[in-house]
Amino acid sequence: MGNKSEQEELLLNHSKNSRKGGLITMPFIIVNESCEKLASYGLLPNMIIYLTTFYHMEAASASVLLALWTALSNGLGLFGAFLSDSYLGRFRAVAIGTISSLIGMCILWLTTIIPQLRPLPCGQHQHGCDGTTAVQLAILLCSFGLISIGTGFNRPCSIAFGADQLENKENPDNERLIDSYFNWYYASVGVSLVLAVTVIVYIQDHFGWRIGFAVPALLMIISVSIFLIGSPLYIKAKARGSLFTGLFQVAVAASRKRHINVQLNNNDDCYYREPESNHLEPSADFRCLNRACIIEDPHMELKPDGKVSDPWNLCSVEQVELLKCFLRVLPMWSTCLILLVAIGQTFSIFQMMTMDRHVFSLFEIPAGSFGIITLIAWTIWVALYDRILVPLLSRYTGHPTGLSPVSRMGISLILGCMATALQAITETIRRNKAIKAGFEDDPNAVLNMSWMWLVPQFALYGVAEAFNVVGQIEFIYSLFPKSMSSFASAMYTFGLAIASLISSFLVSMVDNVTSAGGNTSWLASNINRGHLDYFYWLLTFLSFINLLYFMVVYRFTEHHHDGRNSLYHEAEE
Hints:
This protein is mainly alpha-helical.
């Protein structure tokens, strides 16, 4: 009777949704996401300049604040996905996120319009620069927080919301249609990133902060308007529960049953399995978690229909194995954090401002636009690798992708070491030139040193990130079932959040230690007096130690590197 009512509900929902969704909704969703990314990424490159100039922050303090902001934005992505899947649904999550970003960017724009919302410029009082008041800092942090909430709700849910509009199992071309949607989606994201680090940064540099921050706010108005206009056309799937809840349930259930001796439970019948499951028993590793799926009292723990009475006390074998997959991935995933820390540093913009950035006599590249070099290197390398190197390498390695995911992750760490070392060498040369030219006390002076000195390190970071992102996501994907393919990108996003926290701690520690006793900090706002080169050498050392750590992890987890997890491989074939 229950199955019949469920089938009737599904048929009713299908009939309601049959006139909604489809390709007609794609422009609304893609424009919404493109405008959001164009607006939010356009704020980041020059934000450290805005904080040091108008809020009178030291370079290290501004860098820590931006790192914490980035960590919050990426970390809230997991929280937003959880709320979307469990309670809100994707439409509400995207709508809340987009509106939150709009409010945050409007508040940030108001700090450029209303003088009372930021400190007075230096030199207007005899005591020099005024500090930022608690109210002014609270308003700034409020804008950052609202933008982070918007990012956390919008980004993980927007792409899945678009896929919901195209989901139609009766269509034989549905898989190809969704794949085409993903391609167009990521293409629009790529275009947005390029425009963000070029056009938006150029506007900020040449037309000032009022217009430079007004443009992202205007883009968010367009984003909200377009998304809500398409509301009557959307399929709005209801929340059905989150994957993360199931993982927490396993941990809680295993803790509650910690008195059970796992060694004595070798009978397949004592484990709870989902209907039609191919998993007879849990795997041997992380054996303590197996307690979560052991049935102690069938009458108390199971309903008459065979379902679990309390999911926080009894879990399925499948849930246990998913948590084990997550734990198996963690060591290799953690090897990429230091690389992300190095790539995410914002101090290079101060170097660029002291160098000759002219391409032609009448055109000067904005200092915040140099991230385009990393994007170009990433794009070119991915294309070359996919079209040229993969066919050649696959003949020798026997791997269909040329190199295994773990090999690509290892190469990315080597390239990261090279990039940070090159960064340190370049900064040493730049600093020596500045001191010889008599600019030790003038950090804004432009040296007779071309911007081309910075191209190799940015290009290396681009190639390293391309190797790392694709390799890491493919590695995680190989260990999880296909139904959890989105978990791979979620893990990468979580890695960005952790890397930002590590970066904020590292910068704060280096600044405090090196400035002790009245000494000039390595990360002083006047980079000609500081020692940014020493900081880059420290990152190089940490990158090398991380490379050794990667080798150790590879050695002890080598049996997981040969492709998809055998448990799920057998179940899904």
